[in-house]
Design brief:
The protein is an alpha/beta fold. The protein has 19 helices and 21 strands.
């Protein structure tokens, strides 16, 4: 059997985009991912679905697996010939015990590689507006563990040197011992008025920062309910936070928003909300898949030249239909001479990305908009093909037929109800951690409600702001007793994002 290899990979401090390109590449190659509590769960999306995932998380007072057992696990997996990613929060060699794991592998003659990560010792202060060095205020910095190995016979901390010889002190895992840290530094000569800060969950949407001095930081942290994991920063650089804070001042910071859009279409929406500071919970209430039968769509494609128009009512319809065109040995040239319509700019962009020119996009991005603006362009007998979801609103084909068109609707895909994560999301609602839920179609509303028993879905939305992309979605919500708090004038993801930001920017 070929010998495996272990990659000790730093996952960074909290923001899933702060991992390195090499870390993402190693995750994509993994047979097994051994991960801990501090690794952001979204980072795991880089690993292939087939990769085994083993949680060995360690947090204060709750160790899923002791370090010796983790070492033994890594050795066993490598000896089995596996490619193993040991994913660790921050950097594996900065108080991450990566050195111990590497030593255990070396002792067995096993191959390993280290992929450094961004340590929270730098990132958490930076996201709190605190540079750990500044040529005006700090020319030296020390990273210190706030929790030494309890098995050591005596402390290796030189408090006198730390107190008087280093400009900036950054303590990791120091929350529990914060009173002792502040006391020892003052006893060894550091001024009680030295600025100090505690940054909880730095570089994540749950970040919280408390600023004080060595004389009062313990009391202020206690009053603010600060807890682990937190980074403690001591030094004059803390005074720069008033001018350099940028992360916590974003318009959606501190807000937790559930995105119910299908996973394939959610990424842009998630990115936009996260750029504005939101903590996003991806909870797809729709999954798309090919129709159970392609017969109708295939027949339409084989006789595509008979149509005058092809109308696409979603990006899904466009993507599935054009992919099927290719499967049948055709390409976009088959649509030459046929006018193309899209229900909105996102669908138009999907078509243009395939090299197609869109002839019609209504000013109002819903079926009614197409009817009002396209009907005058039609003549009796105009032949229109609509590739769409298996189940969809019938208003568009019906009204176009009333206008004299010959309408042919074919299923290009179907939507199904996912079953994952309902319990996890319900727990967040029960803990009152959810501020807003977004719905981008009527089916996301109905599917959300179906994912919970009885009236539980509607109950969970009580007291939570509901954002709907447009009036049709809002009307569906209303039929289920759900009131809409945010609705943009333009029915696009960009407009919905802007409306959400404006909603939370209003004076309270």
């Amino acid at each position: 059997m070929n010998q495996g290899k272990v990659f000790l990979v730093g996952a960074g401090p909290g923001d899933p985009e702060l991992i390195t390109l090499k870390a993402a590449r190693r995750l994509r190659q993994a047979d097994v991912v051994v991960y801990d509590y501090l690794a952001n769960p979204r980072i795991m999306e880089h690993a292939p679905p087939s990769a085994e995932r083993i949680y060995v998380g360690k947090q204060a007072g709750d160790h899923t697996m002791v370090q010796e057992d983790i070492n033994a696990l890594l050795v066993r997996l490598a000896e089995e010939g596996k490619t193993v990613v040991r994913l660790k929060g921050g950097d594996p060699y900065v108080f991450g015990r990566g050195g111990e794991e590497a030593a255990a592998l070396h002792a067995k003659g096993l191959s390993f590689e280290v992929v450094p990560g961004i340590t929270s010792a730098i990132a958490a202060p930076a996201f709190a507006g605190i540079p750990v060095t500044d040529r005006r205020l700090a020319s030296s910095v020390a990273f210190i563990t706030g929790h030494e190995d309890p098995g050591k016979s005596e402390s290796s901390m030189h408090w006198d040197a730390l107190a008087q010889g280093v400009d900036t002190l950054v303590f990791l895992m120091g929350m529990k011992n914060l009173p002792d840290i502040a006391r020892r530094l003052v006893e060894e000569g550091r001024s009680p008025q030295t600025p100090a800060a505690v940054v909880h969950r730095g570089a994540s949407p749950q970040q919280k920062t408390v600023v004080g001095t060595l004389s009062d930081i313990v009391e202020k942290s206690r009053e603010a309910g600060m807890k682990a994991p937190s980074v403690v920063v001591v030094g004059d650089v803390v005074s720069l936070r008033d001018r350099l804070e940028w992360y916590e001042s974003r318009p959606l910071f501190g807000k937790t928003i559930v995105v119910t859009r299908a996973r394939a279409q959610a990424s842009v929406f998630l990115e936009q909300l996260e750029e504005l500071g939101a903590r996003c919970i991806s909870f797809p209430t729709i999954e798309t898949r090919p129709p159970s039968s392609w017969d109708e769509a295939d027949q339409a494609i084989r006789s595509i030249s008979q149509y005058d128009w092809v109308l696409f009512t979603s990006t899904n319809g466009a993507d599935y239909f054009l992919d099927r065109l290719k499967v049948l040995g055709e390409d976009v040239r088959a649509l030459k001479g046929i006018s193309l319509g899209a229900i909105g700019p996102a669908t138009a962009e999907a078509l243009e990305a395939r090299g197609l020119r869109v002839d019609f996009v209504p000013s109002e991005y819903r079926a009614e908009g197409i009817i009002d603006e396209l009907s005058p362009k039609l003549t009796p007998g105009t032949r229109i093909l609509i590739p769409r979801a298996l189940k969809a609103r019938e208003v568009l084909p019906e009204k176009l037929a009333e206008a004299g068109a010959s309408v042919h609707v074919v299923p290009a895909y179907e939507t199904v109800l996912p079953s994952e994560r309902a319990g996890e999301v319900e727990a967040l609602f029960e803990a009152r951690e959810i501020d807003m839920v977004t719905f981008t179609s009527s089916s996301t509303v109905t599917n959300f409600l179906q994912m919970f028993e009885g009236d539980r879905g509607a109950e969970l939305l009580s007291g939570v702001v509901v954002a709907c992309i447009g009036p049709v979605t809002a009307e569906t919500a209303k039929k289920h007793g759900i009131s809409t708090g945010v609705q943009p004038d333009e029915y696009t993801i960009d407009a919905l994002t802007a409306s959400i930001a404006a909603f939370y920017s209003k004076p309270s």
